[in-house]
Amino acid sequence: METPTRGNTTISGDLPIRSAKPKSDTSKMPPHLDVQDATNEQIREATRMAMMNPRLNFSDALAAAIGAKKRTKKKRPKSKRGNDKPTGFEEYYADGPITPKEHAEMLEVYNPDLRFIVRIEEALKRFQNRRRIEPGRLNMFLKYLQYGGVNIGGNSVDEANKQDVKSMTKDQIMQARAQAGIQKQRDTLEVNFDLVLRGFLSSYFIRYFNPENEAVIKLATETIKNFYTYLLQRDVCPEYTENLLDARKTCDMAAKELWMNVQLVRKGPGPFNKSCSTLFGGAYFQSSSPPTGTERRKDIKEKQENARNVIKYAVAGATSYEQASSFLELVTQNQLWAKKIHDIDGFEVLAVIDPDIRVVEFYHEYAPEQTPVGTIKAVSFRDPSEPDIDMSPEERWEWDNGKAPEYEFEFLVDIDLLPLFYQGLKVISGVWQLNCGLYYFDEVMSTYPTFHTVIANGLMMKWKWPRDLTGDDDKKPDEGAGNAIQWTVDAASKVTDQQKGEQSDQDEN
């Protein structure tokens, strides 16, 4: 039986294969033209044109078929792009030179013969138009203005349609974008930029914004300082030049001190003072009575033992011989106790003393796992923003005549916490005295900087003019008064009563 043989089906030779689309000489293609940008119909039209005219190459025919050379899109410079556009608050930003026309205009709008509120209102309008104020920065700046007695309203540009904006003049647009205005009834109030700034940064700002990092504090101080610089450069209020320069210095102090204060509240009172509070009384006190539960009892015992070690080495290494001897004697007799000092809100720092080499060497030799302690000298502090202490008329008379009790303290503070203390710092905390002569402070509730100032402007921010429910038109405020009121003795009680039941519409914005 024959074995079938497999036939040779190999095709020899080169066969011409027709391409689906005509080839284009991409090497001669203009750099601004890509064949992929053309449609099939345009490619067919270019092929037909090239076949009818042998002198016309395909790339030129394709360009003619498309109709025009493709325009390259120019990239906008960074100075005109969204988030990269300068805001006017950069560290080395400076306004460009003004033209003679602009100079003449400023002389007119900031004429010293005009009332102050007219000039400052015009400056606020132009400042907001000149700077690109981002939402977070704007919120803080408007709160500062509101604290200073400026009425804050909505932005009317957002409510206007595009056609209305296009038909406005430059001054009309600035007026529409302005969110701040001052009522004429405030013309008689005292003007003090530095005083208002001290009150805002030392009291209101920390409580309202609760800054979580240093950047938030710098955002506030740099924005306000930039506004002061704007007023000085344009000579808006030459009668307050010295006051504005003082306010700029306050901004520099606040940028440093406020962040230190925030960190102290978070990290305080430190291991030594916390240990004293744990053993002798305070916010961290752990009772020696047997608690319920084995784990709970074990945890408290460990905390008390660690607290004893911290206090023992601090007293032995950093106190005087008399204090250490008294402490040891009272501990041996089990007679060591502490009492809280009443009628004070905290203490004000007078001096910060780092531990000397002797103390550091003592810790290094006997307690390397412990942190050395330094010393802080302070005096008692009473917060002027808190209500008066309840006392008899005789006691009140003595206190008003300078006979209020004053205390001097010397605290032991861990070396890690010492850099956060500085002369003039006010610390709101409970102060305790051990019967061996040592003092310690409890949980740090709040802190105030050296420029701490208490003014009534914070109360005014939540006040609004009461509605007339009697129908008596004579009791209504003057037209345009809005929610403005001068801070007088008579108005103080109205403000306090009003705060209990009503919230300002401005504060919601």
TrEMBL record:
Basic residues compositional bias, start-end: 68-80
Entries under Pfam families matching the protein: Arb1
Entry's transmembrane regions: none
Record's compositionally biased regions (Polar residues): 1-12
Chain residue ranges for the region called Disordered: 1-37, 67-93
Cellular component annotations (GO), alphabetically ordered: ARC complex
GO aspect biological process, one term: regulatory ncRNA-mediated gene silencing
Protein name: Argonaute complex, subunit Arb1
